[in-house]
Specification:
The complex is a heterodimer of chains A (282) and B (269).
Chain A lengths: L30 E12 L2 E13 L4 E5 L6 H9 L6 E6 L2 E2 L7 E4 L11 H5 L1 H6 L3 H14 L15 H13 L5 E5 L7 H18 L2 E6 L2 H7 L2 E5 L6 E6 L14 H20 L1
Parallel strand pairs in A: 3-8, 3-9, 6-7, 7-8
Antiparallel strand pairs in A: 1-2, 1-4, 4-5, 9-10
Helix pairs in contact in A: 7-8
Chain B lengths: L1 H38 L9 H10 L1 H35 L1 H15 L3 H12 L4 H24 L3 H9 L4 H38 L5 H10 L3 H29 L7 H7 L1
Helix pairs in contact in B: 2-10, 3-4, 3-6, 3-8, 3-9, 3-10, 5-6, 5-8, 6-8, 7-8, 8-9, 8-10, 9-10
Classes of the chains: A alpha/beta (282), B mainly alpha (269).
Chain lengths: 282, 269
């Protein structure tokens, strides 16, 4: 592990916002996809899921992918985490080619997927057990993370004793406990009610700012995408391809008031048009 | 408040789990006695409850002695079906190829009546304990496999992906995710298995044995000694209940987190 990112360093909030530019970083950091496509083989022949994709996600960037159902967003996530090999092209994470699970990611799914037989704390420690890292060293970090998301005092509870929002917060802690560079989130708040969802979005933005992680988040909700993202990637219908990538001009830190900003509504409108004109053409 | 809660929970448990079936059993026994008196059924057809109790009292040492071989054979057969059933289920759930070869045959083998082939074991293994154990094993094996396969297969693939993405080896992911997840299903299979293993052991004793409760039943039927036969039945039922209860207790220890056990946790905390 990099000595500069000690397990508890995130505890001090970042002093100011990071400036995110398209050119910063380069292939040595962040995530780079070049010519990555995926075709599934099935009994009825080949099913293309993703057309060749080329893009780069900078280190520390909040990158959001929006697209219709079944456009291969989840496939993308699995390929970046190393669970699935791309049919063509290559993926670089932190300058290293991805060929197998590399463990430099934390994943959050739509369902919290906490193990019902482990209490919250040992659920958060799951990545440490899987990676065979020293437990003692990471236990304070796990506790600090739970505190960061407002779950201190719930360490010994079992998952079913927590509400849906709290469970999802615990699963965010689990994604961060082994201090990965990247957080992959597959519709993380899709199963929550609208009010909790907004709260979680604000929370997530704060967590990302304080930890400085690179986040790749997948969502169906265009306002959510614009609200959270530094950049939004719009995908086409199946087989998925890049329709456009937008910079979000809103300043950080953002509060829910940002949703009333004309720049916000304008961008939401522009992205929405993508889907309507596209399906009209189809 | 906590005191009050415990009080009411105790009375509730007594009410639901214990008293009601007992009262119903008492009712059945009384009806049985009344029926025999009213219709004057002779004892060689149906014995009166009093006769059965009398036999239970006088023959108690002998019945106890004979129930050991049955218990022993049941437990051995049950353990064998767990020891073989769970790994077989793991293989079936883990590999499509293994499943396609084994599973249909397993289902097919279930339609072969065990009672019909039980004499075969006597031919092969003699009159000792082995035919009984095998017959108990054969009856107990299938439910364990079926439940465990279902348990292993119902793991959320996303959960496995999550653990694998953290560089967990196959074995570690299996121990941390798949196996605990399958535990509730495995235990429901084991509970069916233990009661069937009792049946299996008795079947083994029917066809060829000179000890055990099954042997006692066989012998008492031969001499129209129905009170003894009914007493043996009672012993057999008790044996099944006790063994089931033991598995149930073990389940509570192993998977205290499961939905079916949650009441306990609430009261404990």
């Amino acid at each position: 592990m990099n000595p500069a990112t000690k397990p508890t360093e995130f505890d001090q909030p970042a002093a100011h916002l990071r400036l995110v530019s398209d050119r910063a970083g380069g292939a040595a950091s962040g995530i780079t996809l070049s010519g990555v496509s995926k075709t599934y083989r099935s009994r009825d022949g080949d099913v293309p899921s993703l057309r060749p994709l080329d893009f780069h996600i900078n280190e520390g960037e909040f990158f959001v992918v929006v697209g219709p159902s079944g456009c291969g967003k989840s496939t993308l996530l699995k390929m970046i985490s190393g669970l699935l090999a791309p049919s063509t092209g290559e993926i670089l994470v932190e300058g290293e080619k991805v060929t197998k699970p590399h463990g430099n990611v934390g994943i959050v799914f739509q369902n919290a997927l906490l193990l019902p037989w482990r209490n919250i704390l040992s659920n958060v420690m799951l990545p440490i057990d899987m990676k065979k890292l020293p437990r003692d060293e990471y236990l304070p970090r796990a506790k600090a993370l739970l505190k960061l998301v407002g779950l201190d005092g719930f360490e010994k509870k079992l998952p079913w004793q927590l509400s849906g929002g709290m469970q999802q917060r615990a699963s965010i802690c689990r994604a961060l406990v082994h201090d990965p560079k990247i957080m992959l989130m597959d519709e993380p708040f899709g199963a929550l009610d609208a009010m909790t969802r907004e709260k979680m979005n604000v929370e997530l933005m704060r967590i990302q700012r304080e930890t400085g992680k690179t986040v790749l988040l997948i969502t169906h909700s265009i306002p959510e995408a614009v609200f959270l993202a530094d950049r939004v990637l719009v995908m086409t219908e199946r087989p998925g391809a890049i329709a456009a990538i937008y910079d979000v001009p809103l300043p950080r830190p953002r509060s829910l008031d940002a949703m009333a900003d004309p720049a916000f509504t304008e961008l939401v409108q522009r992205i929405r048009k993508h889907f309507f004109t596209q399906s009209a053409l189809d | 408040m906590a005191e009050l809660k415990r009080e009411s929970s105790v009375s509730k448990a007594l009410n639901a789990a214990w008293v009601r079936p007992f009262l119903f059993l008492l009712f059945i026994v009384v009806m049985w006695d009344v029926t025999i008196r009213v219709f004057q059924i002779p004892a060689y057809q149906i014995p009166a409850p009093g006769d059965v109790v009398a036999v239970l009292r006088t023959e108690w040492p002998e019945l106890l002695r004979q129930s050991w071989p049955t218990t022993y054979a049941t437990i051995c057969g049950f353990l064998l079906s767990a020891v073989f059933g769970i790994p077989v289920a793991m293989l079936i759930a883990g590999s499509k190829t293994v499943e396609s070869y084994i599973y249909p045959l397993l289902v097919f083998s279930q339609s072969v009546p065990k009672i019909a082939i039980a004499p075969l074991f006597v031919v092969w293994f003699g009159f000792g304990i082995i035919p009984k154990v095998i017959s108990a094993f054969l009856l107990g094996f299938f439910p364990v496999v079926v439940s465990a396969v279902q348990g292993f297969k119902s793991v959320d693939p996303d959960m496995v992906d999550l653990a694998r993405a953290m560089q967990g080896s196959r074995f570690r992911v299996f121990c941390a995710v798949n196996l605990p997840h399958a535990m509730p299903a495995i235990f429901s299979g084991l509970k069916v298995s233990i009661t069937l293993a009792v049946v299996g052991a008795v079947v083994g004793e029917f066809v060829g044995s000179n000890s055990g409760i099954g042997y006692v039943m066989q012998r008492s039927i031969g001499t129209f000694d129905l009170p003894t036969m009914f007493a043996a039945l009672v012993i057999l039922a008790l044996l099944g209940v006790v063994l089931f209860w033991v598995v149930d207790r073990i389940e509570r220890l192993v998977i205290p987190w499961h939905v079916s056990q949650r009441d306990d946790i609430i009261f404990a905390s």
